[in-house]
Amino acid sequence: MQEMDYRLEAQNGVKFRQLYGNLPDVVVPEMYVGQTSRRVLIMEWVEGQKLSGVKDLYLIEVGVYCSFNQLLEYGFYHADPHPGNLLRTNDGKLAYIDFGMMGEFREELRDGFIEACLHLVNRDFEALAKDFVTLGLIPPTADRVAVTKALTGVFQNAVAKGVSNISFSDLSGNLGVTMYKFKFRIPSYFSLVIRSLAVLEGIAISSNPDYKVLGSTYPWIARKVLTDSSPKLQSSLRSLLYKEGVFRIDRLESLLSESLRARAGKALVQNQEGGESRVVIKQVLSFMLTEKGSFVRDILLQELAKGLDALGLALSSAATARLPFGITFSISRMTDEDKINLTTLYRLLLLMASVQETGNSGKVVGVGVGQQKNQEINLEDVSSVLNQLASIDEVLPILSIIPELPPESQQQLLNLPVDLSGRLISRVAARTIRRVFV
Question: What is the pLDDT along the chain (438 residues), one digit of tens a residue?
C-alpha cells in the first residue's frame, strides 16, 4: 500500500513541484520531507476553494495545459485529479494537492498517444489501428483491416464535427462494442490518463456545457508535433504530410492553425486585444527560424524549391497561355509531378499570404475547401498570388517584425534565400542531366 506511506507521497509532491510548479498560475505546495514520516505528512498549507465550485474556465485551461505537460512532456502525472484535489487559491491560481496516486507515462507511450490523437483528428483510421497496438489496447495479432473498419465506424461521425467538438467521454463510450469484439485491453496507465482528462472535462462542463478537453489540448499536441525532435514524431509528421509522395499542405495548414492557438497565461481563454496579426506573424517567424522549427522549415524549403522548379519549367515552355504581365507559356510539356509541385507552390504562397490576414480568431485562413485536393490550377492564379506577395503593403508587416526577432533568428532568415537557391539549383541541374543522358 504505497499510497499509505506518506514519505512516498512527499517525494511525489517534491517531484511534481520541480516539474510543474513554475507553470503559469499553477501552485504546488512545498513538502517538508524531513519532518514527514510514514504515517504523518507535513506540507505547505494552501487556502482556496474546490475548483468545481467556482466556475473558473481560465483555471480549467490552466489545468489542461498542466495536464498536457504531465502526460506528454514529462510523463509524470497526477492520477487522481478529482474536484477535491484541485483548488482555486485566494489569489486566483490553480493548486494541486494530494500526491498519493501518481502515474508514469513512458516516452514511447507518450509518443503513441500523440500519434493516436493526430491520426484521429486527421481521420487516418488505418494508422490509428496501429497506434492502438502501440498503446497496448489491442493485441498485435488482431485483424488490422477489420479493426480499421470498426474504428472508422466508431469515430468518423464524431471527428467530422471538428476537433473542438470531440469529447473524451463520448469517444470512450462509443468504443464499447468494438472493445468487446476485438478483445481490447485497458492498461492501468490508460484508464488513469482517460480518467484524469475526463475529470477536467467534467469540471469544465459545469461552467461551459460545450467545453471539450481535446479541443483545448490539441493545439499543444499540434505544436509538439511540429517542434519535437523525437525521431518517431518527426517520422509521424512526415507520414502525415505526405501521401504517396504528394505533399498534403492542407494538413500542414491545419497543424499550423491549431498550434497558433496554443497560448500561455491569460491568453489561454481570452483573445488578445489589437495587433493579433502582428503577433501571429511573429509567432510563425520565430518558430520557423529556431532549431525546433528546423524540421518543418526543411520540408517547406524542399516544397518551395520543387514548386519554383516547376514554375521555371512552365515559364520556359512554348506559349499557349498569356499572363497579365505579357509573358506566355504552356504547361503541356509538364509531367503530372510538375503540375502537382506547381499547385503546391500556389497553395504555399496562399498560406504565406493568409498568415498576415489572420484576425482575432487566431486561425490561419486562405486555403479553402475547394483547394484541399491537388487539382490542376490556372497559372494566372500563381501570377496573381506572386503579384499579391510582391505588394509593399503585404511585405511591410514582415519587415517591421524582423528587428524584434533574436539575432540568431535574423541570421537564419538571411540564410534562407541561399538555402532555397541551392536546393533549386540542385533540382534544375538534376533535371538537365536526366534530359541529356536519359
Answer: 445 789 999 999 999 999 999 999 999 999 999 999 999 999 999 999 998 888 888 888 898 889 889 988 999 998 887 778 899 999 999 999 999 888 888 888 899 999 998 998 888 999 999 999 889 888 888 888 998 998 888 888 778 777 777 776 666 666 766 777 777 888 888 887 777 777 877 888 877 888 887 788 888 888 889 888 888 889 999 999 998 888 988 888 888 888 877 764 444 544 444 445 566 667 677 777 888 888 889 999 999 999 888 888 877 764 445 545 555 544 556 788 888 888 888 888 777 666 555 444 444 444 333 344 444 555 565 565 556 555 545 555 566 777 878 888 888 888 899 999 999 999 888 888 877 776
Residue 117 shares a structural domain with residue 223: yes
Q: Pull the grid cell for residue 139.
A: 493485441
In a shared domain, residues 179 and 198: yes
Residue 316 domain-assigned (yes or no): no
- Asked whether residue 221 falls in the same domain as residue 131, the answer is yes
Q: Which amino acid, one-letter code, is at 250?
A: D
Does residue 98 share a domain with residue 27? yes
- Of 288, 273, 247, 297, the C-alpha closest to 410 is 288
* Residue labelled with grid coordinates 497553395: 347
Bridge partners for 389 per DSSP: none
3-state secondary structure 68-89: HHHHHHHCEEECCCCHHHEEEE
Domain-ending residue, one of 222, 245, 260: 260
**Residue 275 within any structural domain of the chain:** no
The vertex-170 CA angle with 166 and 174, nearest 5°, equals 120
Q: Is 80 a catalytic residue?
A: yes
- Written as nine digits, the cell of 267 is 491568453
Which is nearest to 341 in space by CA: 312, 370, 383, 366? 312
Residue 246 resides in a domain: yes
pTM of the model: 0.76
The residue segments making up the domain with residue 36 are: 6-54+73-103
Q: How far is 432 from 312, CA to CA, in rounded Å?
A: 13
Q: How many domains does the chain have?
A: 2
179 and 192 housed in the same domain: yes
The whole-angstrom separation of Cα 281 and Cα 86 is 36
Catalytic residue among 5, 25, 56, 80: 80
10 Å Cβ neighbour count for 251? 19
